[in-house]
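Final report, results section. Input specification for complex C-07:
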Amino acid sequence: MSSAPKTSQPTVDDLVSSGYQHGFVTSIESDTFPPGLNEDVIRLISARKNEPEWVLDWRLKAYRRWLTLEDPQWAQAKHPDIDFQAISYYSAPKKREGPKSLDEVDPELLHAYEKLGIPLEEQKALAGVAVDAVFDSISVATTFKEKLAEAGVIFCSMSEAIQKHPELVQKYLGSVVSYADNFYACLNAAVFTDGTFVYIPEGVRCPMELSTYFRINEAKTGQFERTLIIAEAGSYVSYLEGCTAPMRDENQLHAAVVELIAMDDAFIKYSTVQNWYPGNEQGKGGIYNFVTKRGACRGKRSHISWTQVETGSAITWKYPSCILQGDDSVGEFYSVAVTRGRQQADTGTKMLHIGRNTRSTIVSKGISAGYGQNTYRGLVRMSKRAEGGRNHTQCDSLLLGDKCAANTFPYIEVMNPDAEVEHEATTSKISEDQLFYCRQRGLSEEDAVSMIVNGFCKEVFNELPMEFAVEAQKLLNLTLEGAVG
Amino acid sequence: MISRQQRQQEQREWFMQVLDQDDLLIKDNTHWLRQYRKDARQAVNSLPLLNRKQEAWRYDHIEKLFENNFVQPDESTGGFTNVELYDNLLPPLTSYRLVFINGYYAVSLSNLEELHDGITVCSIGDAIHLMPEKLAYSFIYGHKLHKDKFSALNDAMFNDGVFINIDQGVHLDHPVEIVYLNTNHATSEDDRENLIQTRNIIFLHEGSSVQVIENFVSDQSENNKYFHSNVTEIYLDEGSKLEHYRFQDESRQAYHLSMLYVTQKKNSHYHSASLALGGAWARTEYKVNFEEEQSECDLYGLYAVGDEQLIDFHLDVQHRQPLCRSREQFKGILYGKGTAVFDGRILVDKHAQKSDAVLTNDNLLLVNDAEVNTKPQLEIYADDVKCSHGTTVGRLDKEHLFYLRSRGIAESEARKMLCQGFAEDIMMNIRNEELRLYMVDSLTRTLNAHNVSSGDNYGH
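Structure output:
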C-alpha cells in the first residue's frame, strides 16, 4: 500500500473506491510481547495481568488442547495459512497512573475516538450510553460506572472482573464456549488478554445500553477478546458492540469469544456493528475475524437476541448461536452481511432447541458486490425433547455485479415430530423495474440502489437500538458507494 | 465401542474384499473395458476412505454396510416365472421390459420384441458383443466416474446393466422398463449376502425422446440382505427429452445406492420422479450438469421412511450455462423410527446468467423418534438469476385434521387423506397413468401396513 505522493486531482476511480475512512494509526507507546506462542508466553500474560492460579491452569489446558487441533478448512473462505508464531499475543498501552476520569485518559487515545466520530464526552451525555472502550487489549476508560453500580450492575473489563469478582468469573467462564470448543476458541482461551464482563443481578433492568468500542491498534497484534454477559432471573440488558480498525497491510487475526447466559425470564440483546478494515481492492490486508459467539438460554422463558451488521473485515467467520435449554425460551438472529472488493463472509447461526416450546427466528440478509463472497451457514436442531419447538428461517441474498457470490448452506436436523421448522431462501439482483421506478421519480441510480438495499435490510435494522440503526444505515451506504452501477 | 481406526480398517478391508472377487462381465484379458476397469480399480484404492466428517457422508450411518461381507451371487433366475413376476411384483404396463435377477440379465423374463429401427435397447453384456463401437463410444465420451469410491467400485466391478441408444429424431412408443429383482432364493445358500452392481447407459441423440422406468423390487423375506449399487449415465443431446421414473421398494434389510449422472445439451429436457419406500439404508444421488444453454431439468421425489430405515437423497444440479431452468421438489413422510436425509445443492456458475432454479424439501413427521436431516444449498456466482429454496419439517396440521373430522371423517381416514394429499404434489408428476396409479397404491399399502392411519402415534 505504498502511495507515491499525488499531485494530480483524485481520479474518479479513487473516489469510487472511496477507501476505508477509519484508517489511521495512533502512535502510543505500547508494552508489546515479541511475536511467538508457547507456554512461557501464556504464563507471562497471566503474570502480567496478575491472575489467580486457576485462570493460568485454564489457559494452559486450552493451549495444550489447541496444539492437538488443526486449522479448520470447512468454511467457504480462502486465506493464506496463518503463522501463529508470527503474532504478538500481548499489547497494552503503557499505563500512566490509572485514569479516574476522561481528563486523565491519554489525549491521543481520545483523539482517535474523535476521528472515529465517537467522542467519549459526547457519548457520555448522548443517549445514556456507557462506553467501555477497549483500546487494543486493555480497557483504559470506563464511564458511567457509578450509575450502573447503583443498579447493582457489574460492567467492567474482564481483567478487572477476574480480580474483583473471581467467584462469578470462575463459575461462568467457559461454561457456554468451553476451552476445547474449536480451534480459535481454544486459542482465545489460552491467550485472551481482556474483554468485557457484564453481570445483571436478579430482577434488574439495566438502566442504559452498554456499549464497547473495540479497536485493533498495534501492528501485528492479534486481538483476543473474551466477553461474558450474565443476566440473572428477570433481568434485562442490551449490549452494543461496534468495531473499527486502522488501515494496515498485514492480515490481522481477531479471534474473540462471546458468552451469554440468560436465566429465567432474562432478556439479553446483543447488537454488533462490525466495520474492520476489509483490505484493499486487491484483497491485500484486512482483518480476519474468526469469532465464536454463543448464548445459553438456561432459564425458563429466557430470551437471547443477536443482531449484527457486518460490513468490514477481509474474512468474517462467525456464527452467533443460541442454546435453548430452558422451556419456552426464545432465540433470535438478525444479520446483514455486506461483502465487496475481495471480502469473504461465512456467517450464520446455530439454534439448538433442547427445551419444550422453544422458539427461534433467523433473518439473514446477504449483500455481495464486486468480488465479494457471502455465505450463510446455519444449523437448526430440534432435539428429542424439544416438543412444540418452532423455527422460522429466512435467508435472502442480493447480488450486485456478476463476479460476486452468494451461498446458502442451511442444516436442519429434526428429531421431534411436534417441532416445526421452516426455511426459505431467495437469491436475486435488484430488478430493472425497481430501479426504473425510482429513477423516473428523479432519484439518481446510486440513491435508488441505496434505497432499495436499505429496504432489503430494514427487517434487521429495525432490531438495532436507534443510534446504532442510524450508524448502520450510514455504514451500509458508505460500503456500497461505488459498488453499484 | 469400536474405535475410528478400527472402522477405517474395516472399510479398507471391505473394499479390498470386493475388489478381490472375480470379474463376472469381462473374461477376456485384452478387452478394452478391462483396461477401463483397471483404472477404476486404482481409483478405488487411491480415493480417501469415507467418514462422517466428509460433508457428503455427514448424516449417513454408513459404518453398518462395511460390517457385512457381500459376495457376488451366482447366475440363476431363482425359479421366478413370468406369472409370479407379473402378478405380484410389477405394474400392469405395456412396456419394453428388461429383467435383471441379482444383477444378471434374465432373457426369459424380458420382453424386447418389436423394437423398430433407430432404437437400441439391450443389456450391457449383449452390447459388448453386438455393438462394441457404440458402447465404447459411450464409455470414452462419458465421465470418468472415478471421483468417488462407490462409483469407481461400480466401474471396476459392475456385472451388467442396460444400454439404451436412441437415434436422432426417434420417439419410442412405449416406455422402457428396467426391473431389478433381488432375491436370495436364487442363490445356493439362503443366508448369503449378495453384492449386486449394475450399470446403465442411456444415450438420447438429437431430438429423440423416451420414457424409462426403473423398478427395484425384491422378495420381502426375512433375511434378504444385499447391497445393490446402481450407476446410470444419461446423455441428452440437443432437443432430446427423457422422462425417467424410479420406484425403489427393496427389502427392509437391503443396502441400496443409486448414482445418476445426467449431462444435458442445448434445449434438452430431463424429467424425473422417484418414489423410495424400501431398504435398510437407501441413498440416491443425482448429479445433473447443464453443458449447454436452455436446458431444463425437473427432479421430483417422495420418500416414506419407517422403522430402522435410512433414506437419503443427494442432489447436485450444476447450472454451468445461461438460460437453464431446474425444479427440484422432494417430500418425505416419516412414519416410523427412521431417518431421512436430504442434501440438495444448486450451483450457478458465473457464466450461467438467467438461471432459474427452485429447490424445496418438505417433511412430515408422523411419529416420535423419527429424524430428519435436511440441507438445501444454494451456491450462486452469477447475478442475473432467480433462485430460491424452501424447507419445512412438521407434523400433520391439527386444523386440517379438525376440518376433516368435523365433516364426519374418521381420524384414521383423515390422516390417510392428508398423507395422500401431501404425496400428491410429487405423484402428479408421473406422466404415465398406469405407473402413477401403481406407485400411489404402493405408497398407500406401505403406509397402511405400518398403521400410519390408526390413531395418534405421537404417544402423548
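Chain B touches chain A at residues 55, 334, 350, 353, 363, 365-395, 458, 460 (CB under 8 Å). The CA atoms of residues 124 and 448 of chain B lie 39 Å apart. This concludes the modelling results for the funded period.
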